[in-house]
Amino acid sequence: MSSQMINLPTLLATDKLQPDKANYPTFKVLIEAHAESKGLGGYLNASIAEPALTTAPTAPDPTPVYSTNPSRDEYNYRMGVARSLVITNIVDPIGLGAKCDGTAKECWDSVQAACAKKSNAALSLAESKLQLIKCKDAILTRASYQ
């Protein structure tokens, strides 16, 4: 297995995915950026394939952290780190419905699906809130342009 341990980045409390999902766009960008910077992006999008089971008597040589062809042990370790990157940066992963077991891709897909949900009630509420926004000092004078 790779001798390099991957330090798991933890987002600031304000950047973690909040229960109301209002900060999802920022959360998504940060998680994807952190995953790529740690060589874990391929685990979130499943572009790194799970290695086949082998009966080799000796362990293969360690692969670099950014390898797209890791050994089985390295794959399992990095998959767990990628999944943890997502789960530990959600305020309430269970309440959100995040898939906490399985692959990192399944976990990431479950978060994206939960945050992309739209309902007629939510759309109606958003429209109502937009209608309540009022402009203050809507009349601009010529002096304000200079």
Task: Give a concise summary.
The protein is mostly helical and about 150 residues long. It has helices at about 25-35, 40-45, 70-85, 95, 105-115, 120-130.
3D architecture notes:
Helix content is 44%, strand content 0%. It is mainly alpha-helical and 146 residues long. It has one domain. The longest helix is centred in the middle third of the chain and has 16 residues, at 72-87. It is elongated, with a radius of gyration of 22 Å.
Order of helices and strands: HHHHHH
**Overall strand count:** 0
Q: Percentage of helical residues?
A: 40-55%
Q: In what range is the share of β-strand residues?
A: under 5%
Unreliably modeled segments:
140-146
Protein traits:
146 residues; disordered C terminus; mainly alpha
Give the arrangement of secondary structure elements:
Elements: H1 24-37, H2 41-44, H3 72-87, H4 93-96, H5 104-116, H6 120-132
Helix pairs in contact: 3-5
